[in-house]
Amino acid sequence: MALLSLRDVRVHDGVSRRDLVHGVSFELSPGKAVGIVGESGSGKTLTCRAVLGILPEHFTVAGGAIEIDGRDTAGLSGKEWTALRGATVSAVFQDPASYLNPSLKVGTQIAEVVRVKKGLARRAARRRAVELLEAVRLRDPERVCQQYPHELSGGMLQRVLIAAAIAADPRVLIADEATTALDVTVQAEILDLLADLRERTGLALVVVSHDLAVVAQLCDEVLVLRAGETVEQGPVERILYDPRHEYTKLLIEEHEQYGLDRFKELDHVA
Ligand SMILES: Nc1ncnc2c1ncn2[C@@H]1O[C@H](COP(=O)(O)OP(=O)(O)OP(=O)(O)O)[C@@H](O)[C@H]1O
Q1: Is the ipTM of this complex over 0.85?
Q2: What's the distance, Cα to Cα, between the start and end of the chain in Å?
């Protein structure tokens, strides 16, 4: 059964009285990855926020259905969403520093997530925090636990955020422009880490990026969004090698300069 299923989802803005997402559909099974690409403002983040139950004020899911692990999310209470978030669907976004408390040590913050979401006692939560930092391949996790966010690099902070996001053993992880702010080498390491988590733990991924190369590296299926509408959707190889929509062709051309060419040569897609 699909872990996550979106059927014709519409996101409506009550202020402008417009639909900003016009019917997005996809299904995600364990260990699979779906990518959402499109330029800025195309509705990628709103789609993710709808899945996490954190749409901004005045925005609603006005049509279609979102099912998480077989459960229709329409009409979930705030409390039910809180229970689902982190534990079933979790997310990492761009700019990890803004999601961490600057005045608390990294280990304390991760242990807190574990304590609240998994109900572990303080000491066990602490041990688990170290294990999680190890799982995201941070060297010397004991030391990182004792550090404050400002002492870590952007790539390290994104690993910390991933550790926090997987702390409650979610089944689906949404990575929304999670590597966009990082330099190319660090970006590659984080993508590799996500691929590894997917393979080892069966974590399903929703990968959001304006960069097709990122999505191509991780995903089985791609949705191309433009102005809130899906213009093209299909297996990643098909979209890359045989794009049918003009907009997809444009995206591919634009992003070749960022390494899609190199990616194609390596033939990771096969
Ligand atoms: N909080 C908000 N208030 C008003 N409009 C919003 C809000 N969030 C998003 N929008 C609008 O909804 C549309 C889709 O935005 P969304 O953030 O989903 O795009 P995106 O594809 O994720 O873009 P980006 O890559 O820039 O994050 C845009 O027109 C945006 O201006």
Answers
A1: yes
A2: 25
